[in-house]
């Protein structure tokens, strides 16, 4: 049956959580941290990071440069539609009067886009670990959809992890794309948390050939 929602100029009609979709594949178990990542915020002495996962969406769609993912039933995948300071019910995608014209492409597209890619922290801790979630899932894609590659750190890190073996589509606000299948990894951890496995992944990927010396340093982001 053909998806009528894709023929219209209407925004998504609602949302679902990833676990509600039949293709949900867990990659990492939920992880309990023994102390709050941001102690100055107070609160509970423990924090639980949710499972990481991958979804496979037939005729899935992507709207905009932040990679909002929409199912064939015209529902936003809430777990991957990040909008700081707002619940999913008030995500800006639902405030749009319409969506850009639909572009259809063949093949499997892995969506690693997220918000604020120009920020070094979000690029390293939110976006790049999605590549490791994909690898661990064993699901292959032939195209990457991401946001931002204009800054040197974006180009250099992506070249180290992906090389030239995969086609890359750079998202933009006016892009509305549908693929034969979307491969959708979750974030490594919800903001402002960073998971231990993601830190290990980044160290293994980028510190093997770097001499850091013995002096102590302060990292400011």
Structural class: alpha/beta
Unreliable segments (pLDDT under 50, ≥5 consecutive)?
4-8
Look at the structure and give the mean pLDDT: 86
Number of strands: 12
Terminal CA distance reads 49 Å
Residue fraction in strands: 25-35%
Q: How many helices?
A: 4
**Strand and helix order:** EEEEEEEEEHHEHEEH
- Measured as a percent range, the helix fraction is 10-25%
- The dominant shape is globular
Radius of gyration: 18 Å
Biggest sheet layout: 8 strands, mixed
What does this structure look like?
The structure is a single chain. The protein is α/β, with parallel strands linked by helices and 221 residues long. The protein is 17% helix and 25% strand. The chain has four helices and twelve strands; from the N terminus they run βββββββββααβαββα. Strands 2, 5, 6, 7, 9, 10, 11 and 12 form an eight-stranded mixed beta sheet that branches. It has a two-stranded parallel ribbon with strand order 1-8. Strands 3-4 form a two-stranded antiparallel sheet. It starts with 13 loop residues before the first strand and ends in a 15-residue tail after the last helix. 32% of the residues are buried.
Feature tags:
two-stranded parallel sheet; 221 residues; 8-stranded mixed beta sheet; globular; 25% strand; single chain; alpha/beta
């Amino acid at each position: 049956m053909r998806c009528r929602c894709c023929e219209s100029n209407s925004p998504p009609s609602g949302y679902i959580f990833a676990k509600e979709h039949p293709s949900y594949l867990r990659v990492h178990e939920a992880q309990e941290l023994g102390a709050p990542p941001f102690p100055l915020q107070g609160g509970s002495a423990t924090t639980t990071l949710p499972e990481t996962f991958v979804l496979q969406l037939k005729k899935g769609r992507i709207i905009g440069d932040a990679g909002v993912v929409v199912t064939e039933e015209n529902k936003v995948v809430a777990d991957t539609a990040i909008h700081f300071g707002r619940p999913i019910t008030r995500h800006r995608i639902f405030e749009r009067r319409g969506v850009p014209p639909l572009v259809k492409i063949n093949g499997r597209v892995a969506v690693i886009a997220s918000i604020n890619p120009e920020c070094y922290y979000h690029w390293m801790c939110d976006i790049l670990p999605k590549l490791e979630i994909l690898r661990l899932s064993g699901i292959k894609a032939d195209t990457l959809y991401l946001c931002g590659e204009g800054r040197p750190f974006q180009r250099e890190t992506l070249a180290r992890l992906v090389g030239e073996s995969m086609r890359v589509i750079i998202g933009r606000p006016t892009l509305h794309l549908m693929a034969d299948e979307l491969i959708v990894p979750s974030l490594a951890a919800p903001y402002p948390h960073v998971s231990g496995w993601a830190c290990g992944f980044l160290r293994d990927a980028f510190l093997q050939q770097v001499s850091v010396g013995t002096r102590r340093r302060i990292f400011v982001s």
